[in-house]
Amino acid sequence: MRRAALVALALASVCAAARAAPPPGVSLDAGQRLVVGRLAAILAEGAVARQLESGLTTTFVFRAEVAGRVLGGARVDVRYDLWDEVFEVVAVGADGRGERVALAGRKALETWWSGLELVVAERGSLTPPGPRELVLALEVIPFSASEQDDAQRWFVRSFGATAARDGSRVTDPAERRGDSLEKVLSVLMATSIRGSALYSARWAVAVTGGR
Amino acid sequence: MRRLTTLLIVVAAVAAATLLFQTVQSRLSEAAFAFTVHPDVLAQLEASRADQRELARLDPERRDLYRARFEKLDTTVQRLTVLAHARERLVGRYNTILLVVFGASVLAVAAAIAVRQARLQPRLARLRDALAALAEGRTDLTVGVGGRDVVGRIAAMIEETSRVMARDRRRLAALQNLSSWQEAARRHAHEMRTPLTGARLELARLHDLLDGTAPERAEAMRQAARGVEQELERLQRVAAEFTSFARLPSPRLERLDVTALLGEFVATYGGAWPGVDVRLRPAAPAWAAVDRDMLRQVLVNLCDNSARAFAGRPGTIELEVGAVKDMVSVEVADNGPGVDPAVRDRLFEPYATTRGLGEGMGLGLAISKKILLDHGGDLELAGSSPRGTTFRLTLPAAAPEMP
């Protein structure tokens, strides 16, 4: 009784933490895999909607947890090609199967997204008579690791651009030491360029199906 | 208690400086980063990027060029967008780095000051002890504090002062000693002169009395009288030497180029000692306040001593002019057998001589020393070995004579 109350309290607090977006649906498919769907509302979130057409890769990371234990996760990368005006989307589920599509415009993306079903946990992760509730966590990262690396490298180069602008070789040891120090500083600075979640949410959801 | 207060003041000052630095720096860095990723900048770049696409549509033949430009602009926009996302972290890291650098600098300065203070304390203590010793009248001090900083310079000044004091004391003692000897010489000369005069008169009377004596006897007595006369003359010379030493006049100083003066001396007296080569080393003019005749007397005396030391063998005497601080120095060096160690310590005392009886009173060096001391300078034995002897004369330097 007491345990049930604690679980209820935890779920309530998780629900309170979730943003305005309505929770996605999570179900067990015929193969007893956890599948997440009904994700349409996420794209409508203000910060996410603004980010999608930035040209950077927006990454959606889903994670399914039960009592702090991670059952599995899935990822969707969305990048808008500004020249061709198409969304290049890569969705990878917990089963390792990926889907790569090019969608011409926002409307097509939303249509595709609303029908998206992602496997977030493999078969056997949540088997009866186990718990029928879980926490689905989502983090939206505004750029990919490669874009982050590229920006870091660019920052490091730009930091030392003054010394290297004329392309002349530096022969003075004191100047070389100065350059080394500059490089160390620029690397220290660049390592702080990391993507923090643009949007995050945690939903307590009841698992449907699979009985 | 006082140290604790000082420490607290230093800590408070460092904390205040750090706080002020952090406040100012964070404002500046935030502003700088905000400018770098300003929305207007991004908007302009995005517009340019869109323009390339439009240009490609209007001018399909140059599509590749516009595409390349588009890609370039796109990359820049993306990088700036990433920076804009990470702006807070970037600014935070920047401030942290600067704060660490500032803190390290402050600590380094504080450490340097602390180390300097720690090193300064014993040096100041040595300085204090040296000053106390100087105040007590001790001379020829060695402070033992090196360095070119203020403390080192003060230590050098203390050492120099103590050296000057020691030199002046030695000169004073020498002058007092010589004055006593002069007084004694004056009395001796006076005491000798009266009986000498009487003896001479009696001898003249003896010559008169001999006129009536038998020729053989008279001749023998005249010979004895000549012998007595010669001894009286020698005593007369001794008395004259005493008088000359006792009545040594004060120098009449004039501003002279010592190098030129020595040149004249070598030209005039260089050949006065057979078999002795007197040379002057080439040197720049050195002006000093000198009594020309007295300095010549000293040089003659020194050269005469050297020539005697050569004992008929050929030898060389070399004169060299130099300058040390506010003094002009003249070194007189010979290649003789050196000064007898038995008289070296009392070389400048009157009657200190290695010559036999009747070969001199041993007043020459005492007179020379007195002359140099009266000039405000000194005469010292700079070195003596079986390979030669060097005397050093010092004279107060004077400003060069204006043409």
Characterize the biggest β-sheet of chain B: 5 strands, mixed
Principal-axes shape call of chain B: elongated
Structural category of chain A: alpha+beta
Oligomer designation: heterodimer
Strand content of chain B: 5-15%
Q: Shape of chain A from CA axes?
A: globular
Q: Please report the number of helical segments of chain A.
A: 7
Overall pLDDT of chain B, averaged?
84
Q: Please tally the β strands of chain A and state the result.
A: 9
Structural class of chain B: alpha+beta
Q: What fraction of residues of chain A sit in β-strands?
A: 25-35%
What is the CATH topology assignment of the largest domain in chain B?
Heat Shock Protein 90
CATH architecture classification of the largest domain in chain B: 2-Layer Sandwich
Please report the first level of CATH classification, the CATH class of the largest domain in chain B. Alpha Beta
Helices and strands of chain A, in order, run as: HEEHHEEEEHEEHHHE
Secondary-structure element series of chain B: HHHHHHEHEEHEEHHEE
**Which spans of chain B of ≥5 residues are poorly predicted at pLDDT below 50?**
none
